[in-house]
Design goal:
Helices cover 47% and strands 14% of the residues. It is elongated and about 50 Å long. The longest helix has 19 residues, at 172-190. It has a five-stranded mixed beta sheet with strand order 5-4-2-7-6. It has a two-stranded antiparallel sheet with strand order 1-3. Helix 3 links the parallel strand 4 and strand 5 (83-84). The chain has two domains: 6-116; 119-190, no CATH class. It starts with 5 loop residues before the first strand and ends in an 11-residue tail after the last helix. The chain has helices at 8-24, 35-43, 62-76, 118-128, 137-149, 154-164, 172-190; strands at residues 6-7, 28-34, 48-49, 52-56, 83-84, 97-100, 110-116. With 201 residues, it is an alpha/beta fold. The chain has seven helices and seven strands; from the N terminus they run E-H-E-H-E-E-H-E-E-E-H-H-H-H. Helix 4 runs antiparallel to helix 5.
């Protein structure tokens, strides 16, 4: 099946269905969401994403979630791994999270959704930055988070990254790429729509 890009409404629909099915099974499931879907759910800074990168915080629920995710995919004609835990290889422990108030909690169960705090998410995105790839979505995500946090000084970003990652794993190309990206952002911010010399009014 061809993979469908998911909007924020799609993600909320899928998670709401997952929550309802968890309630029916009398399970309370904590889910940490990362990547583009976290940006969409927490800050509405992206229009769509390929899938939902998530970690089930209690492994006892993993099989239930995988089975339910496939059921929801069939109901909506989505790819069967529209929500997956492939990112877990890059996250040693879910941490530095904040809870989103997406669904009311219930004694019957459901799901609780968490996303990284903005600073930690910025650090993760900087560490994942690839200078040689044509896909510039990570760059756009970093720029949007920088604007949201009102950060204009690269040294402030380096301090944030070093808060969460050992200094010796931060590659020089990451520092160079971030400086270049922030310079681009500075010029983008300076540009304002309006009359240009030689342009007809």
């Amino acid at each position: 099946m061809q993979r469908k890009n998911l909007t924020r409404s799609d993600i909320e629909l899928g998670l709401k269905r997952l929550s309802d099915l968890a309630k029916s099974a009398h399970r309370m499931i904590d889910i940490a969401v990362y990547g583009g879907s976290a940006i969409m759910l927490a800050w509405d800074l992206r229009a769509m994403t390929n899938d939902v990168d998530a970690i089930i915080m209690d492994a006892r629920h993993t099989d239930f979630v995988r089975k339910t995710v496939k059921q929801i995919a069939g109901e909506n004609n989505w790819h069967e791994d529209w929500l997956n835990d492939a990112i877990k290889g890059f996250i040693l422990n879910p941490r530095h999270l904040e809870k989103l108030d997406l669904f009311p909690e219930s004694e019957d169960g459901g799901i609780r959704v968490y996303v990284p705090i903005p600073e930690y998410f910025l650090a993760m995105k900087c560490m994942a930055m690839r200078l040689d790839e044509e896909d510039k979505q990570d760059d756009a995500d970093i720029k949007n988070i920088l604007k949201m946090l009102s950060i204009t000084d690269p040294e402030v970003v380096f301090d944030i990254v070093e808060k969460y990652y050992p200094q010796n794993v931060i590659l020089p190309k990451t520092r160079f790429g971030l400086i270049q990206l922030m310079d681009e952002l500075k010029h983008e911010t300076v540009k304002e729509p309006g009359f240009s010399p030689g342009e007809d009014r």
